[in-house]
Amino acid sequence: MRSNPPDDVNVMPPRPLLAFYGHHKCASTWVHSVLDYVCADAGWRLSYLTGPKDFGNDLAAHVERERVDLISYVNADLEDTLSLPPHRGFHLVRDPRDVIVSGYFSHRGTHPTHAWPELLPHREKLQQFSKEDGLLLEVGFSGQFLRKMKSWDYDQPHVLELQQEQFTLDPYRAFLDIFQHLGVLDESHYNKVRWPKYLLQATLNILHRRASVIPRFPMSSVPGERLLGIVYDQRFEKFTRGRKRGEEDTKSHYRKGEGGDWVNHFTEEHVAAFKEHYGDLAERLGYEDDADWSVASARDAQLAGR
């Protein structure tokens, strides 16, 4: 078994920790799937985290102990990240009202419960109520996710802030921007000579995941061409078997994938409940200009934009 890297490969020098910070119902499963393929190729140790139970309530100690290269923290809490060493990351949010609507349909019937048994009592209630009453219940239930979005620090220079609605319009450009911010994007062209060397290194890294006796050769960066290929392979239409973004399937975990859907489901009663629970969150995240927003004003804005 060879212990030296293939000739002329891009072996990783010391560099900062990388991190993806996401939230429930904010495309975190999709983003993580892309990162998983990238890390497999690049030989980076990826840690998928849903909450403190996954890292023993000490994220910094977990990173050091497991020698993590990239954190994929899909229910990110700012407090957990403050102890981390210097790192570069990106943070993805979504219109919190769409989080509630998406959560309602998902929690009512499609979200897996094997790793989240606490969801079952909530699901039973949702299945007993009308959609209107179920959404009111979901407004409160979503607090465990939306409060983390509200308490997040959106002015950290080492963390790139993104909105899902813009992210999904052009995911190829978005992922290129992300990896450029992380400092791990190789923008050079991979010709016929370079690709075989890359594939050999990536193959060894992938095999290392399955058998640790095979050497791992972490890369210092990821070719943009390969990154775009992974994003294409993990596109929305693949997960939905050809259904386009915006076409709804309430029985699918990937129900619709379109921003602003809350207008189709909220009533003014839901708006009042949202404001009571979360105050100015919609304005703070840039989804509304002032506190006077309503279903009627949102529909007027949609009509004006057509």
Polypeptide structure, described:
By secondary structure, this protein is an alpha/beta fold. The chain has a single domain, classed as Rossmann fold. It has 15 helices and 7 strands. The strands form 2 sheets. A 5-stranded parallel β-sheet has the order 2-3-1-4-5. A two-stranded parallel sheet has the order 6-7. Helix 4 packs across helix 6 (131-141) and helix 9 (171-182) crosses helix 11 (224-233). The longest helix is centred in the middle third of the chain and has 17 residues, at 194-210. The protein is globular and about 65 Å long. The termini are far apart. The mean pLDDT is 90.
What is shown here, in short?
The chain has 306 residues and is α/β, with parallel strands linked by helices.
Question: SSE layout and pairings?
Answer:
Elements: E1 17-21, H1 28-42, E2 46-49, H2 59-66, E3 70-73, H3 78-81, E4 87-93, H4 96-110, H5 119-128, H6 131-141, H7 143-150, E5 159-163, H8 164-167, H9 171-182, E6 185-186, H10 194-210, E7 222-223, H11 224-233, H12 236-239, H13 268-278, H14 281-284, H15 295-305
Parallel strand pairs: 1-3, 1-4, 2-3, 4-5, 6-7
